[in-house]
Amino acid sequence: MLDKLKTKSEAIKILAALDGSKQIDLISKNLTTLTVQDAYGIAEEIEYLRADRKEYSVGLKVGFTNRNIWKEYNASSPIVGAIYNTTVKMIDKTFYIDGLSEPKIEPEIIFKLKKTPEAGMSNEELIDCVSHVSHGFEIVHSIFKNWQFTPADTIAAFGLHAALLCGPFVEILKVEKNIWLEELSSFNITLSCNGKEVDRGHASNVLGVGPLEALRHILLDSRNLGRQVILNPGDLVTTGTLTGAFSIKGDEVWSTELHGIRLRGIEVKFN
Q1: How many structural domains does the chain have?
Q2: Domain-embedded: residue 210
Q3: What pLDDT is stored for residue 119 in this prediction?
Q4: pTM for the full predicted model
Q5: What gap in Å lies between CA 166 and CA 89, rounded to an integer?
Q6: Assign residue 143 a region: left if phi > 0, alpha if psi is -120 to 50, beta otherwise?
Q7: What is the pLDDT of residues 215-262, one digit of tens each?
Q8: Contacts for 173 with CB less than 8 Å, ≥ 6 apart
Q9: Within a 13 Å sphere around the CA of 165, how many CA atoms are in the beta-carbon half?
């Protein structure tokens, strides 16, 4: 297990790569015994460092919930990482990707919490913890060249999170709870670039069940790893890509269409 000094030095190195738009060697290349627990320790230290400069966690991302992409990214289970007041934005017509390393786009479902969920809750109890649902794009990027890394590297590198572009938030009314439960496990999505279809996805691409399962995973994963993960009212949880993750470039317009759920598709142009 990494000591506190080494954990902090690795966190400083990773954050410097983020700030300088640089790519670096894998953390696991120099720390050959790096474990998932070590990586979460580094990620937690990055949270402290970012807080020192007024960047605060406003929730969590769950990455690699789509098992269809595990082989491509050398993943074997989902990961969890912080999202920040400086990285979460309501979607606008344009988003600038200057300074991001090999950025990619992921269409996701986002939950806003009104109560703290607990491990062991049923779907009905979990949906009661959610006040609003949104559809958005997570923009991810890699400080490691060519998107080659181990799971521990991705965890240490803040889950590869760059930004979360949120569409309109729709309130979950109590009388519509069962409808939301059904729709969140059965909807379809189409992802397009410059008007041309790139990929299609289904709710069940998130952990074989649907986006609500990602919320459950956070609670179970934290318990299994012996980590304390606290989700508070008002926190956001973005639940992982519904399609593949695709490289993005300037002057491209990416959009989605959703079917079978009371959420609209979204569109953004990258510069």
Answers
A1: 1
A2: yes
A3: 84
A4: 0.96
A5: 6
A6: alpha
A7: 998 887 665 565 678 899 999 999 999 999 999 999 999 999 999 999
A8: none
A9: 24
